[in-house]
Protein 1
Amino acid sequence: MRTLWMVLLAVTLSGCGYNTFQTTDEQIKASWAEVLNQYQRRADLIPNLVNTVKGFAAQEKTVLLGVTEARARVGSIQATPELINDPEAFAKFQAAQGQLTSALSRLLVVTENYPQLKSDQNFRDLQAQLEGTENRITVARNRYIQAVQQYNIAIRSFPSNLTAMMFGYKVKPSFTVENEKEISRPPAVDFAPSKGAVSVD
């Protein structure tokens, strides 16, 4: 009798979204881990980038300090797995990362005024790594957004919403649409070797 009850319970749970919650929750965790991995990759590039720019443009103190401070704000946020269950903490994390993206964009715009810096191989390598990392951040964020969307739809849909209430599953925060395009747009620096010119979008 107990075995029959367990079978019926399993069938009922699977039909009410329980398995979907398990699957999508794991997808969210994996996607979030990749988001953090790419953001950390970017943070690790910044000290070398700032030092390289400083070597050619030490007078740009405000811009350099802005990047350093923005990186420090990002580092002060404990990006634990639990953060994705706390909308307020998630919003602070997103805001901090957005500020760092903006600070980096301003730094790259400033470099346009320094031909020697633009021609420095170390700077060019760092800039290429940064742009590649920004692209990977965008991909990772999009995967996270899709995973959360699938999970949140199940939370709100009948009859899986009943299962969600029964087991305490709640809607998870995601990256907001507001400023998403601008925040996730990688700084584009187009080097033109033939003329040694740089255009910054």
Protein 2
Amino acid sequence: MMTPAPRPSEGPDALSLVVVSLLKGVVYREESSALWQSLLQLQARVRDQVSVLGLRLMLDESEGHAFLKQRSEAEGGAELPRLIARRQLGYGLSLLLALLRKKLADADAAAGGSRLVLRRHELQELVRLFLPEGTNEVRWVERVNQDIERAVEMGFLRRLGEEEDTFEVRRILKAFVDAQWLEGFEQRLAAYRAQLVEKQQGGAE
């Protein structure tokens, strides 16, 4: 009688697989149900393992994603070299992500958490509202497309199938741009617009 192969959550290398996957990036329930189940069953051990590296496990079961976050100095412990690099975002990308987070919040309120899918031209139109007067249209479209590609690389947008112009706004964005941040959304957008105008004027000099 053959012995059934152990499920991923029970195998001897399950903990290593989960930790390494988290160190490489975000773990999504929808992309690997076996890995996700291992994470849920081993999460206490995972937290212990990553804490040695100065990291915290950020696990959201309802949204179906998990990632590692650098422990802040305020949380105590010795100061360690950073494993999770801080990302410097340009004005355009910051604006795009802020607008997408607001769009995601509106979609949640209207449809109870359904997927948010947008075409490339819809992403461009979101940003167009904050386009300074006199902007070169061709260069502007190029910059927005670069910001879209950067958002894809960072995991906040995902292309659907082979469609180059259709994207899903990934819910991991909620973990990076939270509800408290959105409270000052209008003020932040005004600041972004002022920065974009200033940057454009500076480039024209």
Protein 3
Amino acid sequence: MFWFTEPESLRYVLWMAASFAISAMVAWAAIRYAQHRELIDLPGRRRSHDVPTPRGAGIGIVVAALASILALAYVVPAAESGLRLCIPIALIAAIGWIDDHRPLPVLLRLGVHCLAVAIFLQPLLVALLHLTASSPWLDTTFWQSAGIIALLGLVCVWSINLHNFMDGIDGILAMQAIFVLVAMAVLCQRYAINAHAFQIALWAAAVAGFLPFNFPRARAFMGDVGSGSVGFLIAIAVIWQNSSPYTAACSGLVAASAFVADASSTLLSRMLCGRRWYRPHREHLYQWMTRAGMSHARVVAWYMGWNLLIVVPVLYWMNLRPFGAPPKPGIAAAVGVYVLAVVVWICGKRWCLYKVKSKKRNGLA
């Protein structure tokens, strides 16, 4: 079981419990702090909640995640490389924490996100510089490697902001994060990437420690400090899983499909309609579902239904192979999942629009 031998499996449970407890205790303290400092999200036209709710409790996830990195690096020598994650995670959390206190310019937040991602990718950037030091401009490998690093950077920055966009109703981000992190941990553990598997599992436990404060009815919100950091942790987990030659390369994309499809389809729709896509809005599918009359718990259940009924079987099929055989690339399966997700998004949006219009007509009647 991860890096423990069988008689030591209790220690694994204790580590998970410790990550859960640290997150929960810090979240509880953050709620008291938010109430004292009046860091409260008030109900409004672009909000999906009905009562004033403290924000910023996601700092508990950050503290537990950082603590797990430091503790694991101390106990497991193979995990020492994870220490370089502390600075980028802290940067993303810090800019989110400040933004929870007073709104910051979008470009400033984006700049800090890019800096944090660059620090995370620093070993790859250094390797790239040494790859073709003599004549990099003439080497095809240089441009291929540069393209991969740029793509990884884009994935990380998009994940940070995507999960911030999707943190709009009770429990939806925490539940999705737990699902994706557990899926990545299981894949890494199954194919003997033990240090990464255990680290990801500890992050899942940290998110679970926040969940009781946010679901089924929110007593606190993650805030930008939590949502951005969770998005970054998910991106790291997906990259770690994808770096394994033993798992299907597109597994992480499939696991995250519920949020990626919703956020990307909504963004593209707003851009095509000529709207200011960067402004706050309530046009994600989950927001339309709540406006159509669904409870937050029911909306979360629909998203988890997608994960359990579509994502899990596809992940199982993608990574099912005879011993010693190479894994399936999974590109066709991933494309199929996203095509289906977009179709569901379009149909769901149309149904919600119909329900909202019907409610308005009945109200006028």
Protein 4
Amino acid sequence: MNKQNLIKITDYLWEIPKSYRADMKVPARVFASEKMLEELFRDRSMEQLINVTALPGIQKAAYAMPDAHEGYGFPIGGVAATSYPNGAISPGGIGYDINCGVRLLKSELNFEDVKNNLEKLAGELFSEIPSGVGRGGKIKLDGKKLGEVLNNGAEWAVKEGYGNKDDLNHIESDGKIENADAGAVSDHAKKRGRDQLGTLGAGNHFIEVGKVEEVFDGQIAESFGLRKNQTTVLIHTGSRGLGHQVATDYIRIMNKAMSKYKITVPDRELVCVPFSSPEGQKYFSAMAAAANFAWANRQLITWLVRKIWAKIFDGSKLSILYDVAHNIAKIEEHYTRTNTDNIQREPASSQYKSVLIVHRKGATRAFPGQPVIIPGSMGTASYVLVGTDKAMEESFGSTCHGAGRQMSRHQAKRMITVDRLKNNLKKENIIVKAGSIRGLVEEAPEAYKNIHDVVDIVDKAGIAKKVARLKPLVVIKG
């Protein structure tokens, strides 16, 4: 596989036709610039994308976003949809951190109002919001309460006083997937999640205080309640150890069940079962429960951030712009091309809608008019975009989710020094609080692709449009 195997559809959309390999059921499509295509061949992400096209019941195409890189089974930055209800559901198409996602809070205050208290704010956020591998929080849930969290998500948190009802109107799926069933989640997974509500975790998860540095679309920014120099808080975390265990449990279950359904896949990491099967239904219910746990987790962190913010800034408030998942499977209606071999873009009028099982793994929902939150790597920018009609036609209403790694964690540790990272962050006037400064090296900006390039590609491809760019001021990490 190399660049010569790709057919150029537009300057920012490329295709590997299904004739490339005998087991491909649909084409593989990549959103990328010519320059960024070279980066996609540095790991197995393109090979993984082609493998995804062999999933039972896959529709239209498998997609890779410009932030794509190698993952488990699917590339991170991958999107695929299978037919409902008998198409495949694959845990590799969601990932281990179920409903890893982002929430953006917007402040009443401008940068000038907060700049003299940023060190204090950073210290309080780091002290009060638990972060780090396996670290638990102050909220300990008994079995009954945990079951309520898994079934009801952010709705449970609001009911318990950790927010207000309006918060739910600014969360994807209102912060709750109805198909969730706490009974489908193993005792081991529940044990891992029992004390992790309101905690950040480690890896690339963070809390980032920033300011609106640039506005690209004034009208949409105003409708979102954003303005230049306004301060914001970005929360990036997921379902913690509970979600990881749900993935582990059901990958093992599906590995044993695949032969029963006579399913073969080109990569064992693409383990899957029919969505309508007992195993598929149980996994979807457990995945939905883990997704609900993640939305409750971000709601609890929001509650903690709001308390600290009000304490430091004389009762000032934070409201939610939006909260969106980027590791999840959803049942949605989408356009399906009448002819998957036709690589020319067809208008919606020549297509028809089907109910599909949409897998987004390191990809963000981008429905028309919906805020799309794209976090950058530490020390660079984050973006607010808006979803488009074209995303519905081109990518199952999906876009990128971040910068995307270009170095493994091991490579980053080998190539980037602590002193260099510290100096770079100091030059940018970014305050960082972390449990381990050496661990921060894994998340250095150099370990990631250029966020500006990634966002420019999805903007020019039309699957999301730029609204505003955010500059980091404070970063809290585990």
